TrEMBL record:
Protein name: Hemoglobin subunit mu
Superkingdom assignment: Eukaryota
Record PANTHER family: HEMOGLOBIN FAMILY MEMBER (PTHR11442), HEMOGLOBIN SUBUNIT MU (PTHR11442:SF8)
GO molecular function terms attached to this record: haptoglobin binding; heme binding; metal ion binding; organic acid binding; oxygen binding; oxygen carrier activity; peroxidase activity
Family matches, as PROSITE patterns: GLOBIN
Gene transcribed to yield this protein: HBM
Domain Globin: 1-141
Length: 141
C-alpha cells in the first residue's frame, strides 16, 4: 500500500501528533461538524452545543485508532477489524462521511504543522487515511 518513503512520512507526522491526540481529534470533530453539519447525526450525545469534554474524549478515541493504524501499516485490516465492525454493523455510519473526515484531517494537520507538513507528507497521509477508510467500510452490508 505505502512505499517506504510514504511510511516514513506517515510516521514523521504521527510523531508530531503523538501526545496531543485529544486536542487534534477534538479540533477535527469540531471542524467536521461545522463544515459538514450532517455528520453530527452520529453524535447525538453532544447535544446542541459542542461540549468540549465530549469532543476531547471522542477525539482522543479517534486519534488512538489512527495511532493503531500507524503502528500496523502492514495489516490495517486485522488491526482495524473491531472498529470496522462497529462502524459498519452497529453504528452504520454513512461511508460517504469518511472522505469528509479525511479532508478535515488534512486541514487540521496543515494548520498546526504548517511548513512541517510538506506536500509529500500530505500525499502520504491522504493515501494512508484513504486506506484506513477503505478498511473501515469493507464490513458494510
Amino acid at each position: 500500500m505505502l512505499s517506504a518513503q510514504e511510511r516514513a512520512h506517515v510516521a514523521q507526522v504521527w510523531d508530531l501528533i503523538a501526545g496531543h491526540e485529544a486536542h487534534f481529534g477534538a479540533e477535527l470533530l469540531l471542524r467536521l461538524f461545522t463544515v459538514y453539519p450532517s455528520t453530527k447525526t452520529y453524535f447525538p450525545h453532544l447535544g446542541a452545543c459542542q461540549d468540549q469534554e465530549h469532543l476531547l474524549s471522542h477525539g482522543q478515541r479517534m486519534l488512538a485508532a489512527v495511532g493503531v493504524a500507524v503502528q500496523h501499516l502492514d495489516n490495517l485490516r486485522a488491526a482495524l477489524s473491531p472498529l470496522a465492525d462497529l462502524h459498519g454493523q452497529v453504528l452504520r455510519v454513512d461511508p460517504s462521511n469518511f472522505p469528509l473526515l479525511i479532508q478535515c484531517f488534512h486541514v487540521v494537520l496543515a494548520s498546526h504543522l504548517q511548513d512541517e507538513f510538506t506536500v509529500e507528507m500530505q500525499a502520504a497521509w491522504d493515501k494512508f487515511l484513504t486506506g484506513v477508510a477503505v478498511v473501515l467500510t469493507e464490513k458494510y452490508r
